[in-house]
Design brief:
Elements lengths: L2 E7 L6 H14 L4 E7 L6 H11 L4 E5 L6 H11 L4 E4 L11 H8 L5 E5 L7 H19 L11 E4 L16 H7 L4 E5 L15 H19 L3 H30 L3
Parallel strand pairs: 1-2, 1-4, 2-3, 5-7
Antiparallel strand pairs: 4-6, 5-6
Helix pairs in contact: 5-7
């Protein structure tokens, strides 16, 4: 298997016919073996039944994974990655705001020697105040803290060589930090503009509260990348500082006891 397209899905029954039409058109035009792994993240509408219908029509290319309840986008992506067989992994959302037709040009960019091609929604069609502005601030903060400078960490549409995805697990909202993990193992990363469309059906699953979660996950990612292979540098250094501080306090108490409290 050459290409694995992993798509997390949650309450997208109305978008699925358009998604399958666009994905099948794009993937059949690419002269490589491919599969599509759709992970139903505990949808409450008819999403799962629609997914199963398409899987029955094209079992050679379409595989469906279903969760009993909603675990979140990161868990869905992690499950899809576990089942993916391709040498190249493509991630994309199911809401049809990304365009599968961008995949071939991203694969061509990968052929230039890159290990990860990240989509950049340069002309993003979301609410400027509640989505675009918080995203811009978060992207700037993540780039500054991690040293991996991308305009759009939140764009799910990305193409990876499989080997840069191995060796770590995803938690919380950490799927957006995959480029940071990839960079830590020496991946060659680039970013390119991709098309973005307004959502036609359904409602967005994310609001301003997600920004706070992303910031908290950023601290976790920074810790894992910086100290995962050498935790003693952090805990040993912190322990050393605490020992010095406690020694100073004990010395102060001893001096105080001998010279100032003796009768």
């Amino acid at each position: 298997m050459n290409l694995s397209l992993v798509i997390p899905v949650y309450n997208e029954q109305d978008n699925l016919p358009f998604l399958f039409e666009a994905v099948q058109k794009t993937m059949t035009e690419i002269n490589q073996s491919w599969e599509v792994i759709l992970v139903d993240d505990g949808s409450r509408d008819k999403t799962l039944s629609v997914l199963k219908q398409y899987a029955e029509k094209d079992p050679a290319h379409i595989r469906v994974i279903s969760f009993r309840r909603n675990f979140g986008q990161t868990a869905a992506i992690a499950a899809g990655l576990d089942y993916a067989q391709g040498k190249i992994i493509i991630l994309m959302d199911a809401d049809m705001q990304n365009d599968p037709a961008d995949i071939p040009m991203m694969l061509a960019k990968l052929d230039e020697g890159y290990d990860l091609v990240s989509g950049w929604r340069k002309e993003r069609k979301d609410d400027a105040l509640t989505r675009n502005l918080p995203s811009m601030l978060a992207n700037g903060l993540i780039s500054r803290v991690t040293g991996v400078h991308l305009h759009d960490y939140g764009c799910t549409l990305k193409v990876y060589r499989r080997d840069v995805l191995e060796g770590f697990r995803l938690y919380g909202e950490m799927h957006r930090f995959i480029p940071v993990y990839a960079n830590s193992v020496g991946a060659n990363i680039t970013e390119m503009p991709v098309r973005h469309y307004p959502r036609k059906f359904g409602k967005t699953k994310y609001g301003l509260e997600r920004t706070a979660k992303v910031i908290l996950d950023l601290f976790t990612v920074k810790f894992l990348v910086a100290f995962a292979s050498k935790p003693i540098y952090l805990f040993g250094g912190t322990g050393g500082l605490l020992m010095i501080a406690s020694s100073i306090i004990m010395l102060y108490l001893l001096v105080r006891r001998i010279f100032f409290l003796s009768v």
